[in-house]
Request: fold
Amino acid sequence: MMETRTRFAPSPTGYMHIGNLRTALYEYLIAKANGGKFILRIEDTDQKRYVEGATDIIYKTLKRVGMNWDEGPDIGGNFGPYIQSERKAIYAEYAHKLVELGGAHYCFCKQKEENEDDEEETQETHEKFKDPCLNISLDEAKKRIAAGEPYVIRQTINKKGTSVFHDVVYGEIDIDYNELDEGVLLKTDGMPTYNFANVIDDHLMNITHVVRGNEYISSTPKYNLIYETFGWTPPIYVHVPQVMKDAQHKLSKRNGDASFQDLVAKGYLPEAVLNYIALLGWNPGTEQEIFSLSELEKVFTCERLNKSPAIFDITKLTWMNGCYIRNLSAEEFHKTAMNYYDHLLGRGYNLEALSAVLQPRVEVLNDITEQTQFLAQMPEYDIALYENAKMKTTPEIAKNTMKLAYDVLAGLSVWDNETLFSSLKEAAAANGFKNGQILYPLRVALSGLQTTPGGATEIAVVLGKSETLNRINIALAKL
RNA sequence: GGUUCCAUCGUCUAGUGGUCUAGGACGUGGCCCUCUCAAGGCUAAAACACGAGUUCAAAUCUCGUUGGAAUCACCA
Reply:
């Protein structure tokens, strides 16, 4: 049986779009699930859109999520080169060959101008382009080319009837040949368009499965026509639905929608992003939702790909990201967070101080100390802080429990977390209070904050006995 | 506008003629737990776009309607 070969063929235009990444993922999974090869090919035939450094972003992103390619521009392979601009001669050769075979023709028409007038445009686009150059004989065309006249090679669509092709996710698709337009295959500058380079490369690189957005469905018959003229076998098509921002708009950088880089910069783990997008348009058929890349390799099948577009929901990604973060060990979390702050954000944090913050709880105290000492200089405790419906705490209760806390703490001679906590807990129980009713107000009294990195008693330990009692007094005065 | 495609809770989805008073997850509300936040547990509300068929039986098949998307570039 033929080896499965898939390819991810992004154009280096600057960022890694989420939809693109998902396509890459599916390509990768198809290859790996079948013990095949995943190929990276850079489609840089449009020099106008080329963005410096974009290729690097592609490399880095793929590596970061663990999708390693078996052949590509940087590592080579038997079917190179893997950058389309370096294959210019190959396309030219095949384009002229296609003309000889009757699948294309030379065209000397002027490039259609950008139409600024929208209303006029709607009128025009309804009319199909009829190429007058179709009437030029091959000999005459060759003479004009030899004379130095600029030209383009256009696909010739002279087939009648209906094209039928099979798509793994959409099934049979019928499109009338009349609907196809005679698009440019080789541009004036000698570069191929996607429509051509794609076919040539996929064939020459022995690609077995082509995964791409479903916006290509309507032009697939054109590609098949080229395969047919050359006598080649078309690949298996896997058209996937779009990733949407909302019901009307697809996700795009233009609208300011997040790219992979943006998400990572916001603190999303690459693993979580990958996991989330895998489930956008695909599901395993079980109730499992958390998947590592290698787990996906084992369970992925094209048959479970969906037909309808999926809306990218950052809320669910956020939840999933939380799952991943919680699964990190203390060391991993620490390392990840350090990397995030230092390398990613480049904020110049004091790594030692930050390190302390990120260590397990007890070691958090250094930082709390700084925080509370700063706050101590302006303890404008708001009485509203003592209200918290969830813990059933009110200013009245707080007043009582703070008195209680003062008495209990004043009587202690040992000042460590365990002692403080158990003493207060006992006192609360003995007086009919819930733990939270004494500890929550205590936190507020000591820190001036509703939420703190450590518990109330941990703060008290840091503050020391006299400062703790002092602050309880201040709080009591306000209550 | 032509053509192609799509249509289950707000969102991602399960569901391939009976097991569907439609299941799960995120989010949302309530309760519980809790030394705050978070996490966790329980619970609630929430969907088959509409209309005709076919069938003993339809979320599932057919047709139509409506709604949405894509495409119609010397962009990919």
